Amino acid sequence: MSGSVFELLDLIARWVHVIAGIMWIGNSMLFNWLDRSLVTNPNADRTNAPVGTIWLLHSGGFYYVEKTLLRGQALPHPLHWFKWQAYTTWISGVALLFVVYYASDRAVLADPSVAQLDRPIAVGIGLGSIGLGWALYESMQRFVAPRAPALAATVWIGGLIAIAIGLTQLLSGRASFLHVGAMLGIWFLAAAFGNKFAGVLASTFGEGEATHLDHFFGQQAAAVAVIGVLFLIMVPWVKRRMGGVR
Asked: What is the pTM of this model?
């Protein structure tokens, strides 16, 4: 590809990433504030399991918001999910990693003054660090946090710091911290997607079928891992088929 094409892709992905990130952070702050401000309303009778309610005022209009748990009930329609801001932020960020570092020489990924690494090895280190960080976070939150949340938080925060330091010893400084940002993004995105997906399944499966959910999630994780490995195996073949295209 020509430099002008990469320049255009860089510009599009960068601005989409920034705008979607602002929207994602804004939504996260709004819902965090809502959760902190909810009060118990004994008169709330619109849902079976209300957690709390709140009144809001904006532009002359009053809003009544109630947080509830469905507990096996069907999902309401229409249901407005605040999800695309998070997905778009992460997808555009990954696109930037490929456009800026993996598929072109627009920025220094492997700094010779830091470590003598070939580009494929540097790319593997970058992708491997993201996968390693996700595996650490997921294992701590899934298996350790239910029994010892403080220990889980200590381990994955310490692991994040260790990975960040390790990357600075192998990649350029800017590339190292951008990969740490991608790692945090996938943590938050995986947690958000997992919670939403779990809510959908909880409203679909009955209480007697809840024990099968762990097996179901394990199958999905295994399928994603297999697909990822297949894609990595196919990369050399695709590059050979592309001939001289970079």
From this structure: 0.61
